[in-house]
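#structure-requests
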Amino acid sequence: MVYVDDILLSGNNLSEITTVKDNLHSKFHIKNLGDLKYFLGFEIARSQAGICINKIKYCLELISKAGMLGCKPASTPADPSVKLHADDSIPLTDPSSYQRLIERLLYLTNMRSDIAFVVQQLSQFIYTPRQPHMQQAMRIIRYLKNAPGSGILYATDNSFRIHAYSDSDWATCATTRRSISGFCVFLGTALISWKSKKQTTVSKSSSKAEYRSLASITCELQWLQYLLKDLHIPCLTPYSVYYDNNSAIHIAKNPTFHERTKHIDIDFHITRQKLHDDLIKLLHVSSTNQVAGVFTKSLYPSPFNTITSKLNMHNIHVHLEGG
């Protein structure tokens, strides 16, 4: 992995890695920093249990720059009783402070999946932010103060079996009435991919919104299959996809529902095709156990904590934070 002048080498053959480093050094005079501990804001800790990746330094700097080191922590990153609108108050006199904060939070979401939904929501107001938007952004900072060292553990004894959760929330956006799609993918117990995204068009029915969400996770799993193949890593298929909408599952499995599916674009029938190809299998899960729900809506503390506990996030710095 190369980013400007930062280079990360990974592999299971130390002699090959040494050869690559020697060749690079002969051309560019690189500096060998040894085993990976810090890379582009990511902090890596190793033990016999596995590898834990977090962004505690980046997170603490973010809290400090926001002037919130002494604030009272929030239990969740978003208040589910608050609905954000594009024009519900006077615009901020200095939108640049809001824009910088959202940019930093967006970079943090590639490690902190628990704030992905609310950051996605706030990023749509980045050009004309208003006071309620800034207040919500500050709530995320207060939530991060709860556990700035939270990260993802990739266990040594992890299994190479992929399963995923997918969800959608119909017409969530109060401004555009577009739906939100969300998914998360696990390799064994390790979270390896997640997304919270507003759909590109308005869905006139909840079934269409649900089917768009299924198409999104199907494409992600297809890409992961290609990636694993390039890395020569065998992984059994079909991949299990857990969904909490029986209607969407039946539509995907049953090609005879013509009256209910004639309004769905051909593009989204990729889900049905990949079911036929045995890339995925759809399994029903209750809404209370739908892990992807945290990527599609704001939740109250109890369900939020229940779901985030299943994201396999660990805080190896908890003893330093008073926990």
